[in-house]
Automatic annotation (TrEMBL):
Keyword Metal-binding found: yes
Keywords for this protein: Coiled coil, Metal-binding, Zinc, Zinc-finger
Molecular-function annotations in GO: zinc ion binding
Coiled-coil portions: 539-580
Name recorded for this polypeptide: RING-type domain-containing protein
């Protein structure tokens, strides 16, 4: 069942569109490279159906060598998918008329239970419908996405909420969907004009359309008319109504499932007994939460935008110490990063955020590879440039907890417009117009440390940073460790050049270096020497040893407790066996005493004093001495023991076995 449900977490090939792919890819690229998509992808048709890698390769081939820093087409596609797969990413990368373009993520709680964002359930319904019904033509799939997005919007989710991911429930939804869709109805309709058909369909559409969606719907119907016109044997209105009836069946099935599961597709009510789900962001050994998801807004907060910069966090340790935990289920939310960008995170009241440290590295990467600003600056420009960069308030060196910065802006607007304002005093546009050399291609056999030093000099970076080659060896060593193929490639030399420049900038800006340290980013700069990290290492080593000892002690306590429990269980078992043994001894002793007293003979049935011992034989039932000739005597056919006949007859009224050997007695 798990394998079957997992396919609904993947983007169906028929649900991929040129626009959403183009927007996601362009957002992943450095701003300067984004127009490349507009030139390369104008003729791509929807759905893409697995052509993404082919289109990326075409884009790389026509990029005038600008995209070499991203590696192969396969690597770039993998990183784009990592970047765009976040909850409600369609609000950023796709139009309202397009399908959901991302893969829903499964998260685990601190109790190791699976959870999924409620808004992502609409994506699963889309993928489930595509698998169950295979809507045709593609425009029907698009309109189903319009319907689902409308239902998601009308649900009114004000924050990210989670619900348990139960494969059995989704299997029931799938079966319910099959039942609701049923068989395709037989079509019998009169011929109508296009205008009359449009009006009839608008009246029957099961959702309210805004102006943009209304225009999309009219275009959608127009496409149907074009399709039906090409099919001369089918009257146009019949084709159109067939499509619409299919669409209505599908939306009815989707609506039924949504309405039957309000706890899954609606926000949590204030009087709900269900625990509140809170995201615990995990980045390495750091665990923290967004403050605005936990604490009620103060009077001051009502006068500010909930998505303003920055968005503060509280560590898990601080939260536990505060005691602000009541009926809460903590959801582990790992911070994910592609190679060149971090995956955006939905804010408490909307908006997209990334950690400040990720924003810092992305902004510097844009300056280094996109604008090539450090290659274009003259040595006399550098002090003022660094001063302005150092004055950027977004990168707060006083904050030790992680914090988020909002990154979503209107399309075609750079992420950090406000940071560019700091640089206007440097005659920014004049500097950008200066020429800059390109990074040279690497030979198939790779490159060496000396090759890296030569490239730094070729790019003119030794002029502005005379010491930059001193970082080459340490940076080269780290790049070698992280390479994807046998030999270092051109994309690897881009990485090395970037990290050499980062080291030079941070060594000149103690404020930003402190920011990087406080935000736990030192290890992300190859070859960086951080005095604070070095000073913390002995303490960290002591803490690590203490943690190891504490863990060993805890394990020993657990093992000791287990041994105590096992010993207690064994003692109870021994006691039970002792009681049973005493009982058995008593039961065995009684017949043994009887046997000792009886001293029966195995001779002829006629009793003879010569065949017995001097002591009289007893009947083992009545325990009286057997006297010859007084009463008739019988014996057990198995053990040959003797009894008075009347005693034996009375005995077998209540028993079936011999009182000595437990063998079956004959019936008299």
């Amino acid at each position: 069942m798990l394998l079957q449900m997992s396919k609904f977490l993947e983007v169906p090939s028929i649900a991929t569109t040129k626009n959403s792919f183009q927007v996601a890819a362009s957002y992943y690229l450095i701003e300067k490279f984004r127009p490349i998509f507009c030139y390369v992808l104008p003729d791509a048709q929807d759905p893409l159906e697995g052509k993404e890698k082919e289109l990326i390769q075409l884009m790389i081939d026509n990029s005038n060598h600008w995209l070499r820093m991203y590696g192969s087409a396969e690597e770039l596609l993998e990183n784009i998918n990592i970047y765009k797969d976040f909850s409600r990413s369609h609000e950023l990368v796709s139009l309202s008329k397009e399908t959901y373009p991302f893969r829903p993520r499964i998260f685990k709680s601190f109790q190791n239970e699976k959870y999924i964002a409620k808004s992502d359930l609409f994506v699963i319904l889309q993928n489930m419908m595509i698998e169950v019904a295979t809507p045709e033509p593609f425009e029907i799939t698009r309109m189903l996405a319009v319907y689902l997005k409308s239902r998601e919007k009308s649900a009114g989710f004000k924050s990210i909420e989670f619900v348990k991911f139960d494969e059995a429930i989704f299997e029931k939804m799938r079966e319910r969907m099959k039942v609701e869709i049923g068989e395709k109805p037989v079509l019998s309709v009169p011929r109508m004009s296009m205008e009359a058909s449009l009006e009839k369909l608008r009246r029957n559409i099961p959702l309210t359309l805004d102006n943009s969606q209304k225009e999309n719907f009219d275009n959608f119907l127009g496409i149907f008319f074009c399709i039906s016109d090409r099919e001369a044997e089918i009257p146009p209105i019949n084709t159109l109504v067939t499509y619409f009836l299919d669409y209505k069946r599908f939306t009815k099935a989707l609506g039924t499932i949504i309405d039957e599961n309000p706890d899954m597709f609606s926000p949590r009510g204030e009087d709900s007994d269900e625990p509140l789900t809170l995201r615990v962001f995990e980045d390495g050994d750091q665990k923290f939460l967004m403050k605005e998801e936990i604490f009620k807004p103060t009077e001051f907060d009502f006068f500010r935008n909930p998505n303003t910069i920055p968005l503060d966090t509280i560590t898990m340790k601080e939260l536990l110490e505060s005691g602000e935990i009541r009926n809460v289920e903590f959801i582990r939310y790992p911070i994910t990063r592609a190679k060149h960008r971090a995956t955006p995170i939905r804010g408490p009241a909307g908006g997209l955020f990334i950690l400040a440290i990720d924003c810092f590295f992305e902004y510097l990467r844009n300056l280094i590879h996109g604008e090539q600003i450090l290659q274009k600056l003259k040595p006399t420009d550098l002090p003022k440039f660094l001063q302005k960069l150092n004055e950027c308030d977004e990168f707060n060196c006083r904050e030790e907890n992680p914090y988020f910065i909002q990154t979503d802006r209107p399309r075609a607007i750079t992420y950090m417009d406000n940071l560019h304002d700091y640089l206007h005093g440097l005659k920014w546009q004049d500097i950008l117009k200066r020429p800059a050399k390109k990074v040279r291609n690497v030979e198939p056999s790779g490159f060496t440390v000396q090759d890296l030093k030569n490239e730094l000099e070729h790019l003119g970076l030794t002029t502005i940073f005379p010491e930059i080659q001193d970082y080459a060896e340490a940076v080269y060593s780290e790049v070698e460790k992280h390479k994807k193929e046998r030999f270092l490639r051109t994309c690897d030399v881009f990485d090395a050049i970037e990290h050499c420049q980062l080291n030079c900038v941070l060594e000149r800006l103690p404020k930003l270096k402190k920011f990087v340290h406080n935000q736990k980013g030192c290890h992300r700069v190859h070859g960086m020497k951080c005095e604070k990290c070095d000073a913390e290492k002995p303490e960290n080593e002591k803490d690590q040893k203490l943690k190891i000892l504490e863990k060993e002690l805890a394990d020993l306590k657990i093992a000791h407790q287990k041994i105590l429990e096992e010993n207690q269980e064994l003692q109870q078992k021994l006691l039970r066996l002792s009681v049973k043994n005493e009982t058995n001894e008593v039961q065995i002793k009684q017949p043994a005493e009887k046997l000792t007293q009886s001293k029966l003979s195995i001779d002829d049935v006629n009793y003879s004093n010569a065949c017995t011992s001097q002591q009289n034989v007893q009947c083992l039932i009545c325990e009286k001495s057997m006297e010859s000739g007084v009463d008739q005597i019988i014996r057990c056919p198995l053990c040959k023991r003797r009894f008075y006949e009347k005693c034996a007859i009375n005995w077998i009224k209540d028993h079936q076995q011999c009182p000595v050997c437990n063998g079956d007695l004959p019936i008299f």
